[in-house]
Write a structure and sequence with these properties.
Blueprint (H helix, E strand, L loop, with lengths): L1 H15 L1 H8 L2 H4 L1 H30 L1 H7 L5 H7 L7 H41 L14 E4 L6 E4 L5 E5 H6 L2 H16 L2 H14 L4 H26 L1 H12 L12 H11 L7 H13 L2 H15 L1
Parallel strand pairs: 1-3
Antiparallel strand pairs: 2-3
Helix pairs in contact: 1-4, 1-15, 2-11, 4-5, 4-7, 4-11, 4-14, 4-15, 6-15, 7-10, 9-11, 9-12, 10-11, 11-12, 12-13
């Protein structure tokens, strides 16, 4: 059991510290944002699974009741293979630390979901005030597309029940039909990929554990990569140039081409669309995806290795 805990700790530390820093320095995520998002999710899943399996093993070693429940269906040889009766003294401290971390993670996720729901409620109430009144006799229910009277061009997707795509009249006046199609395709790309859930998860983890490099980088990269992925969705349908021009027209009043840090991502997105970077080959993309999907299996293999050896 001691070996399992040490291996799980080593895998978690490796996935939480050096790997994210190396991934942020790589240039291929800009070419393949969807694959990069998958890799980040697999890294986060690896760390969480390492902590969860270590918590279960530690609790089984420290508390007899937990041990009886976890190993109840297992043969005696499997229970003996883990040698839970000879748990080191530090296993108790590690178990308590992991239990506190699990409770804190759950609290942060719940807080983020509650806050997101509250923000959506406020935004919907604000939209109801800004939305034009419908003529008498028409149904009051809003459709999936809502047009607002506003001189500034803007468009965004609001998740929820029901989800809505909001476009201002400024965007309708300034954008051509092809540019408007690119903007709407970009926002629908966010909706189809459920990027809002990724943002909520990354924000909750970064808020709860700001000193862990994996979670802080995961939050920063998620906000960046979801925009690049949605840009690719729009460019595949409407073309790179049309999507870039739509992005410029939609954000020109915000200073999209300025050097301010808040607008730097917009400038990078425009440059990326005007000069598309070379993409990975299909074989390399599939290999990267498969390898990333196998990484979260490491904690499970480490946890089940003693039991499998006992049954062999």
């Amino acid at each position: 059991m001691t070996v399992c805990l040490l291996l799980l700790s080593a895998v978690a530390v490796t996935a939480a510290v050096p790997v994210p820093r190396a991934l942020t320095r790589a240039d291929w995520p800009e070419r393949e944002p969807v694959v990069a998002l998958w890799v980040w999710q697999c890294l986060v899943a690896t760390v969480l699974l390492c902590c969860l399996t270590a918590l279960v093993l530690g609790a089984a070693a420290v508390f007899h009741t937990v041990r009886a429940q976890v190993f109840a269906p297992a043969p005696p040889a499997v229970t003996a293979a883990y040698d839970l009766s000879a748990a080191p003294p530090w296993a108790t401290a590690l178990t308590l630390l992991l239990a506190c971390g699990a409770a804190w993670t759950t609290a942060m996720l719940a807080r983020e979901l509650v806050e997101a729901r509250r923000r959506r409620g406020q935004a919907r109430a604000h939209l109801r005030e800004r939305a034009p009144e419908l003529p008498a006799g028409l149904p009051s229910a809003r459709g999936p597309l809502l047009v607002l009277e506003d001189e500034y061009p803007d468009a965004w997707w609001m998740p929820g029940n029901p989800p809505q795509l909001i476009v201002t009249t400024g965007a309708l006046h300034r954008l051509t039909s092809h540019q408007l199609d690119a903007v709407l395709t970009h926002e629908r790309g966010h909706a189809r990929a459920h990027h809002d859930w990724l943002i909520h998860l990354s924000t909750a983890l970064a808020t709860g554990f700001p000193r862990i490099p994996l979670f802080s980088h995961f939050c920063d990269q998620t906000h960046r990569l979801v925009e690049l992925a949605a840009d690719d969705t729009a460019s595949r349908r409407c073309g790179h140039l049309t999507t870039a021009l739509a992005l410029i027209e939609l954000n020109q009043h915000r200073g999209v081409l300025s050097c301010a840090s808040s607008h730097r991502l917009l400038g990078e997105r425009v440059d990326r669309l005007l000069e598309p970077p070379p993409r990975l080959g299909r074989r390399h993309r599939a290999l990267t995806t498969a390898v990333a999907a196998l990484v979260p299996l490491l904690p499970l293999l480490i946890a089940f290795a003693p039991g499998l050896n006992a049954l062999a």
